[in-house]
Amino acid sequence: MKKDLIIFGNGKIADIVYYYAKNECHYNVVAFTTDKEYIKEGLFNGLPVTPFEEIESLYKPEDHDMFVAIGYQDLNRLRERKYNEAKAMGYELVNVISPNVYLPGNVKIGD
Predict the structure, then answer these.
(1) For residue 71, how many C-alpha atoms fall within 13 Å in the half-sphere facing its CB?
(2) pTM assigned to the model
(3) Are 80 and 68 in contact (CB under 8 A)?
(4) 33 in a domain, yes or no?
């Protein structure tokens, strides 16, 4: 059984991931998270936006998975850092892939 999902991010990429996670991959998305300084509003897509600094206390890693949805513009290092921070907290990081996409047999998907 899938755990509830938290999406790291509150921008366009997070919005797209939310759609696919909910509608294509059937995750129960329960919250968004980002660093406190980047929270503009308390809700995103009708769900709470929780400071990343507080996420562990409100959404236990044993009950929740996470997806890091950070954009493209020179942010690979930031994406990697947030991935590693979430992993260190105990969250399992998931992939969100539409079941309608074709993946060749030699493609390996990591965590």
Answers:
(1) 7
(2) 0.78
(3) no
(4) yes
How many structural domains compose the chain?
1
The verdict on residue 99 lying in a domain is: no
Q: Quick check: is 103 in a domain?
A: no
What does the alpha-carbon distance between residue 78 and residue 84 come to, in Å, rounded to a whole number? Answer: 10
Q: What is the pLDDT of residues 61-83, one digit of tens each?
A: 999 999 999 877 656 778 888 88
Evaluate whether 55 touches 6 at the Cβ level (below 8 Å): yes
Q: How far is CA 28 from the centre of its chain?
A: 12
Position 80: which residue type? Answer: E
Structure tokens at 35: 């660093």
Structure confidence by residue, pLDDT tens digits, 20-66: 999 999 999 999 999 999 999 999 999 999 999 999 999 999 999 99
